[in-house]
Amino acid sequence: MINFALLGAGRIGSMHASLIASSPQARLCYVYDTYQPAAIELATKYDACAVESVEQILNDDSIDALLIATSTDTHVEFIIKGALAGKAILCEKPIDLSTEHVRQCWEQIKDCQVPIQIGFNRRFDPTHSELKQQLSNGGIGQLQQLIITSRDPDIAPTKYLKHSGGIFRDMIIHDFDMFRFITGEEAAEVYAIGSTLIAPDLADIGDVDSVMITIKTQSGKLCHINGSRRCVYGYDQRIEAFGSEGLLQSNNPRPNSVSKSTASNTDSLSILNPFFIERYEYAYRSQLNSFITSLINKTATSPSFTDGMKAQIMADAAQESLSSGKPVLLS
Protein backbone atom coordinates (compact mmCIF):
# COMPACT_ATOMS: atom_id res chain seq x y z
CA MET A 1 0.00 0.00 0.00
CA ILE A 2 1.40 3.39 -1.07
CA ASN A 3 0.52 6.28 1.24
CA PHE A 4 -0.02 9.52 -0.70
CA ALA A 5 -0.14 13.19 0.17
CA LEU A 6 -1.86 15.41 -2.38
CA LEU A 7 -0.62 18.97 -2.87
CA GLY A 8 -3.30 21.03 -4.59
CA ALA A 9 -7.07 20.72 -4.17
CA GLY A 10 -8.24 22.43 -7.35
CA ARG A 11 -9.91 20.85 -10.36
CA ILE A 12 -7.09 18.53 -11.33
CA GLY A 13 -6.16 17.88 -7.72
CA SER A 14 -9.72 16.74 -7.06
CA MET A 15 -9.47 14.30 -9.96
CA HIS A 16 -6.20 12.90 -8.61
CA ALA A 17 -7.73 12.51 -5.17
CA SER A 18 -10.54 10.43 -6.63
CA LEU A 19 -8.07 8.21 -8.50
CA ILE A 20 -5.87 7.64 -5.44
CA ALA A 21 -8.90 6.86 -3.28
CA SER A 22 -10.20 4.33 -5.82
CA SER A 23 -6.90 2.46 -6.12
CA PRO A 24 -6.64 -0.76 -4.07
CA GLN A 25 -2.89 -0.16 -3.81
CA ALA A 26 -2.99 3.43 -2.56
CA ARG A 27 -4.28 5.46 0.37
CA LEU A 28 -4.86 9.22 0.40
CA CYS A 29 -3.57 10.40 3.79
CA TYR A 30 -3.11 14.17 3.47
CA VAL A 31 -4.40 17.05 1.37
CA TYR A 32 -2.66 20.44 1.28
CA ASP A 33 -3.80 23.61 -0.43
CA THR A 34 -3.12 27.28 0.28
CA TYR A 35 -6.90 27.70 0.27
CA GLN A 36 -7.75 25.71 3.37
CA PRO A 37 -11.51 25.31 2.75
CA ALA A 38 -10.76 23.43 -0.49
CA ALA A 39 -8.25 21.18 1.27
CA ILE A 40 -10.67 20.46 4.09
CA GLU A 41 -13.56 19.69 1.74
CA LEU A 42 -11.49 17.31 -0.38
CA ALA A 43 -9.83 15.62 2.59
CA THR A 44 -13.21 15.09 4.27
CA LYS A 45 -14.62 13.52 1.12
CA TYR A 46 -11.90 10.88 1.04
CA ASP A 47 -11.33 10.38 4.77
CA ALA A 48 -7.93 12.08 4.68
CA CYS A 49 -6.42 14.84 6.80
CA ALA A 50 -6.18 18.46 5.64
CA VAL A 51 -2.93 20.15 6.70
CA GLU A 52 -1.89 23.78 6.83
CA SER A 53 1.73 23.26 5.82
CA VAL A 54 3.69 20.93 3.55
CA GLU A 55 6.20 20.42 6.37
CA GLN A 56 3.59 18.44 8.30
CA ILE A 57 3.54 16.00 5.41
CA LEU A 58 7.30 15.87 4.89
CA ASN A 59 7.90 15.12 8.56
CA ASP A 60 5.60 12.08 8.48
CA ASP A 61 7.73 9.01 7.74
CA SER A 62 4.64 6.98 6.84
CA ILE A 63 4.08 9.04 3.67
CA ASP A 64 5.59 7.33 0.64
CA ALA A 65 4.70 9.72 -2.17
CA LEU A 66 3.66 13.25 -3.06
CA LEU A 67 1.30 14.01 -5.91
CA ILE A 68 1.94 17.63 -6.85
CA ALA A 69 -1.03 19.33 -8.50
CA THR A 70 -0.45 22.90 -7.34
CA SER A 71 0.21 25.93 -9.54
CA THR A 72 3.24 25.61 -11.82
CA ASP A 73 5.25 28.27 -9.98
CA THR A 74 5.33 26.03 -6.87
CA HIS A 75 6.38 22.76 -8.55
CA VAL A 76 10.14 23.21 -8.21
CA GLU A 77 9.87 24.16 -4.54
CA PHE A 78 7.78 21.11 -3.69
CA ILE A 79 9.86 18.74 -5.83
CA ILE A 80 13.02 19.83 -4.01
CA LYS A 81 11.43 19.61 -0.57
CA GLY A 82 9.87 16.24 -1.33
CA ALA A 83 13.05 14.74 -2.80
CA LEU A 84 15.19 15.93 0.12
CA ALA A 85 12.65 14.33 2.47
CA GLY A 86 12.94 11.04 0.58
CA LYS A 87 9.42 11.06 -0.87
CA ALA A 88 8.58 9.65 -4.29
CA ILE A 89 7.05 12.32 -6.54
CA LEU A 90 4.41 12.41 -9.24
CA CYS A 91 4.25 16.00 -10.47
CA GLU A 92 1.90 17.61 -12.96
CA LYS A 93 3.50 19.20 -16.02
CA PRO A 94 5.36 21.44 -16.59
CA ILE A 95 8.11 21.27 -13.99
CA ASP A 96 8.48 25.06 -14.23
CA LEU A 97 8.09 27.81 -16.82
CA SER A 98 11.84 28.45 -16.76
CA THR A 99 14.23 25.81 -18.10
CA GLU A 100 16.99 27.35 -15.99
CA HIS A 101 14.90 26.77 -12.86
CA VAL A 102 14.34 23.18 -13.99
CA ARG A 103 18.09 22.66 -14.37
CA GLN A 104 18.74 24.22 -10.96
CA CYS A 105 16.11 21.94 -9.46
CA TRP A 106 17.80 18.89 -10.94
CA GLU A 107 21.18 19.92 -9.54
CA GLN A 108 19.66 20.00 -6.05
CA ILE A 109 17.87 16.65 -6.25
CA LYS A 110 19.92 14.46 -8.59
CA ASP A 111 21.68 12.70 -5.72
CA CYS A 112 18.50 12.04 -3.74
CA GLN A 113 17.69 8.96 -5.81
CA VAL A 114 13.95 9.21 -5.24
CA PRO A 115 11.47 8.17 -7.96
CA ILE A 116 10.16 11.19 -9.88
CA GLN A 117 7.51 10.96 -12.58
CA ILE A 118 6.24 13.92 -14.61
CA GLY A 119 2.55 13.99 -15.52
CA PHE A 120 2.65 13.58 -19.29
CA ASN A 121 -0.48 11.45 -19.08
CA ARG A 122 -1.06 11.19 -22.82
CA ARG A 123 1.59 8.49 -23.03
CA PHE A 124 -0.90 6.30 -21.18
CA ASP A 125 -3.86 6.92 -23.50
CA PRO A 126 -4.80 3.46 -24.85
CA THR A 127 -5.02 4.50 -28.52
CA HIS A 128 -1.89 6.67 -28.43
CA SER A 129 0.10 3.91 -26.70
CA GLU A 130 -1.22 1.29 -29.13
CA LEU A 131 -0.10 3.46 -32.05
CA LYS A 132 3.34 3.66 -30.44
CA GLN A 133 3.44 -0.12 -29.93
CA GLN A 134 2.42 -0.95 -33.50
CA LEU A 135 4.95 1.54 -34.82
CA SER A 136 7.68 -0.02 -32.67
CA ASN A 137 6.68 -3.46 -33.97
CA GLY A 138 7.24 -2.32 -37.55
CA GLY A 139 3.54 -2.16 -38.43
CA ILE A 140 4.06 0.56 -41.04
CA GLY A 141 7.72 0.09 -41.81
CA GLN A 142 9.96 3.06 -41.13
CA LEU A 143 8.31 6.17 -39.72
CA GLN A 144 8.67 9.14 -42.06
CA GLN A 145 6.12 11.73 -40.91
CA LEU A 146 4.19 12.37 -37.70
CA ILE A 147 1.17 14.69 -37.45
CA ILE A 148 -0.18 15.71 -34.04
CA THR A 149 -3.44 17.64 -33.70
CA SER A 150 -4.03 19.39 -30.37
CA ARG A 151 -7.10 21.63 -30.00
CA ASP A 152 -8.70 22.78 -26.76
CA PRO A 153 -12.49 23.23 -26.63
CA ASP A 154 -12.21 26.87 -25.55
CA ILE A 155 -9.65 29.46 -24.61
CA ALA A 156 -8.76 29.95 -20.95
CA PRO A 157 -9.40 33.30 -19.24
CA THR A 158 -6.81 35.99 -19.99
CA LYS A 159 -6.06 36.21 -16.25
CA TYR A 160 -4.79 32.62 -16.42
CA LEU A 161 -3.02 33.00 -19.75
CA LYS A 162 -1.01 35.99 -18.50
CA HIS A 163 0.83 33.65 -16.13
CA SER A 164 0.73 30.44 -18.17
CA GLY A 165 4.11 30.84 -19.82
CA GLY A 166 2.60 30.94 -23.31
CA ILE A 167 0.94 28.34 -25.50
CA PHE A 168 4.09 26.26 -26.04
CA ARG A 169 4.94 25.82 -22.34
CA ASP A 170 1.35 25.58 -21.12
CA MET A 171 -0.44 23.56 -23.81
CA ILE A 172 1.81 22.25 -26.59
CA ILE A 173 4.39 20.90 -24.13
CA HIS A 174 2.22 17.74 -24.00
CA ASP A 175 2.63 17.38 -27.76
CA PHE A 176 6.40 17.92 -27.61
CA ASP A 177 6.49 14.99 -25.19
CA MET A 178 4.32 12.89 -27.50
CA PHE A 179 6.69 13.68 -30.37
CA ARG A 180 9.62 12.34 -28.35
CA PHE A 181 7.62 9.36 -27.05
CA ILE A 182 6.40 8.22 -30.46
CA THR A 183 9.49 8.90 -32.57
CA GLY A 184 11.96 7.78 -29.91
CA GLU A 185 14.22 10.59 -31.10
CA GLU A 186 15.24 14.09 -30.18
CA ALA A 187 14.46 17.22 -32.18
CA ALA A 188 17.27 18.62 -34.30
CA GLU A 189 15.31 21.60 -35.66
CA VAL A 190 12.15 23.41 -34.55
CA TYR A 191 10.22 26.01 -36.53
CA ALA A 192 7.04 27.63 -35.21
CA ILE A 193 4.50 30.10 -36.53
CA GLY A 194 1.45 31.46 -34.75
CA SER A 195 -1.42 33.92 -34.84
CA THR A 196 -4.07 35.45 -32.61
CA LEU A 197 -7.13 34.25 -34.54
CA ILE A 198 -9.36 33.74 -31.50
CA ALA A 199 -8.36 36.35 -28.90
CA PRO A 200 -6.50 39.32 -30.47
CA ASP A 201 -5.78 40.77 -27.01
CA LEU A 202 -3.29 37.93 -26.42
CA ALA A 203 -0.85 39.91 -28.56
CA ASP A 204 -0.67 42.41 -25.69
CA ILE A 205 0.89 39.73 -23.47
CA GLY A 206 3.11 38.30 -26.19
CA ASP A 207 1.11 35.14 -26.74
CA VAL A 208 -0.83 33.50 -29.59
CA ASP A 209 -3.80 31.16 -29.70
CA SER A 210 -3.17 29.25 -32.94
CA VAL A 211 0.13 27.58 -33.82
CA MET A 212 1.81 25.28 -36.28
CA ILE A 213 5.18 23.73 -35.51
CA THR A 214 7.41 21.70 -37.78
CA ILE A 215 10.15 19.53 -36.31
CA LYS A 216 12.97 17.54 -37.88
CA THR A 217 14.51 14.71 -35.89
CA GLN A 218 18.19 13.90 -35.79
CA SER A 219 17.63 11.13 -38.36
CA GLY A 220 15.55 13.36 -40.66
CA LYS A 221 12.02 12.29 -39.72
CA LEU A 222 9.46 15.08 -39.92
CA CYS A 223 6.73 16.09 -37.49
CA HIS A 224 3.96 18.67 -37.72
CA ILE A 225 2.04 19.84 -34.64
CA ASN A 226 -1.04 22.03 -35.07
CA GLY A 227 -2.62 23.59 -32.02
CA SER A 228 -5.60 25.81 -31.30
CA ARG A 229 -6.98 27.27 -28.08
CA ARG A 230 -10.59 26.91 -29.31
CA CYS A 231 -12.31 24.02 -31.09
CA VAL A 232 -16.10 24.38 -31.30
CA TYR A 233 -16.77 20.63 -31.68
CA GLY A 234 -14.93 19.51 -28.52
CA TYR A 235 -11.50 18.44 -27.32
CA ASP A 236 -9.70 17.34 -30.49
CA GLN A 237 -6.63 15.17 -29.87
CA ARG A 238 -5.39 13.02 -32.76
CA ILE A 239 -2.13 11.49 -33.96
CA GLU A 240 -1.22 10.24 -37.43
CA ALA A 241 1.96 8.30 -38.19
CA PHE A 242 2.94 7.84 -41.83
CA GLY A 243 5.54 5.25 -42.70
CA SER A 244 7.22 3.51 -45.60
CA GLU A 245 4.62 0.72 -45.53
CA GLY A 246 1.43 2.38 -44.32
CA LEU A 247 -0.41 4.66 -41.94
CA LEU A 248 -1.44 4.56 -38.27
CA GLN A 249 -4.06 6.86 -36.77
CA SER A 250 -5.07 7.46 -33.16
CA ASN A 251 -8.46 9.14 -33.23
CA ASN A 252 -10.71 10.75 -30.64
CA PRO A 253 -12.78 8.51 -28.37
CA ARG A 254 -16.37 9.67 -27.92
CA PRO A 255 -18.78 9.53 -24.98
CA ASN A 256 -20.66 6.83 -26.89
CA SER A 257 -20.32 5.04 -30.22
CA VAL A 258 -23.96 5.36 -31.37
CA SER A 259 -24.37 6.71 -34.91
CA LYS A 260 -27.63 8.22 -36.15
CA SER A 261 -28.93 8.49 -39.69
CA THR A 262 -32.05 10.47 -40.66
CA ALA A 263 -33.48 12.25 -43.69
CA SER A 264 -31.21 15.20 -42.99
CA ASN A 265 -27.91 13.50 -42.09
CA THR A 266 -26.07 10.18 -42.24
CA ASP A 267 -23.93 8.52 -39.57
CA SER A 268 -24.21 11.44 -37.17
CA LEU A 269 -22.05 10.85 -34.07
CA SER A 270 -21.92 12.32 -30.58
CA ILE A 271 -19.77 15.36 -29.99
CA LEU A 272 -16.25 14.89 -28.67
CA ASN A 273 -15.42 14.83 -24.97
CA PRO A 274 -15.69 18.33 -23.46
CA PHE A 275 -12.17 18.61 -21.99
CA PHE A 276 -9.00 16.88 -20.85
CA ILE A 277 -10.30 15.17 -17.71
CA GLU A 278 -13.05 13.39 -19.66
CA ARG A 279 -10.85 12.75 -22.73
CA TYR A 280 -7.94 11.33 -20.76
CA GLU A 281 -9.71 9.76 -17.77
CA TYR A 282 -8.30 6.30 -18.56
CA ALA A 283 -4.85 7.77 -19.18
CA TYR A 284 -4.78 9.54 -15.82
CA ARG A 285 -5.77 6.33 -14.06
CA SER A 286 -3.15 4.30 -15.95
CA GLN A 287 -0.53 6.95 -15.19
CA LEU A 288 -1.18 6.63 -11.47
CA ASN A 289 -1.17 2.83 -11.65
CA SER A 290 2.15 2.89 -13.49
CA PHE A 291 3.64 5.14 -10.80
CA ILE A 292 2.37 2.91 -7.99
CA THR A 293 3.63 -0.23 -9.72
CA SER A 294 7.07 1.32 -10.15
CA LEU A 295 7.22 2.16 -6.44
CA ILE A 296 6.12 -1.32 -5.38
CA ASN A 297 8.47 -3.12 -7.78
CA LYS A 298 11.27 -0.57 -7.34
CA THR A 299 11.57 0.03 -11.07
CA ALA A 300 12.23 3.28 -12.93
CA THR A 301 9.34 5.71 -13.30
CA SER A 302 8.41 7.16 -16.68
CA PRO A 303 8.04 9.86 -17.97
CA SER A 304 11.08 10.97 -16.02
CA PHE A 305 12.33 14.32 -14.78
CA THR A 306 14.64 14.34 -17.81
CA ASP A 307 11.64 13.84 -20.11
CA GLY A 308 10.05 16.88 -18.52
CA MET A 309 13.18 18.94 -19.04
CA LYS A 310 13.55 17.93 -22.69
CA ALA A 311 9.95 18.85 -23.49
CA GLN A 312 10.62 22.20 -21.82
CA ILE A 313 13.67 22.78 -24.01
CA MET A 314 11.53 22.13 -27.10
CA ALA A 315 8.93 24.63 -25.84
CA ASP A 316 11.69 27.23 -25.43
CA ALA A 317 12.90 26.55 -28.97
CA ALA A 318 9.38 26.97 -30.37
CA GLN A 319 8.97 30.28 -28.52
CA GLU A 320 12.33 31.49 -29.82
CA SER A 321 11.39 30.47 -33.35
CA LEU A 322 8.03 32.24 -33.11
CA SER A 323 9.78 35.42 -31.95
CA SER A 324 12.58 35.34 -34.50
CA GLY A 325 10.69 33.93 -37.48
CA LYS A 326 13.54 31.47 -38.01
CA PRO A 327 14.12 27.77 -37.35
CA VAL A 328 15.97 26.95 -34.13
CA LEU A 329 18.66 24.27 -34.21
CA LEU A 330 19.00 21.97 -31.21
CA SER A 331 22.12 19.95 -30.47
Automatic annotation (TrEMBL):
Residues 2-119 form the Gfo/Idh/MocA-like oxidoreductase N-terminal domain. It comes from the Bacteria. Residues 247-265 have a biased composition (Polar residues). Signal peptide: none annotated. Residues 246-265 are annotated as: Disordered. It holds the Pfam family GFO_IDH_MocA_C3. Keywords: Oxidoreductase, Signal. Transmembrane segments: none annotated. Gene3D superfamilies: Dihydrodipicolinate Reductase, domain 2 (3.30.360.10), NAD(P)-binding Rossmann-like Domain (3.40.50.720). The keyword Signal applies. GO terms for molecular function: nucleotide binding; oxidoreductase activity. InterPro entries: Gfo/Idh/MocA-like_OxRdtase_N (IPR000683), GFO_IDH_MocA-like_dom (IPR055170), Myo_inos_IolG (IPR030827), NAD(P)-bd_dom_sf (IPR036291). NCBIfam families: myo_inos_iolG. Belongs to the Gfo/Idh/MocA family. This is Myo-inositol 2-dehydrogenase / D-chiro-inositol 1-dehydrogenase. It comes from Pseudoalteromonas translucida KMM 520. The gene is iolG.
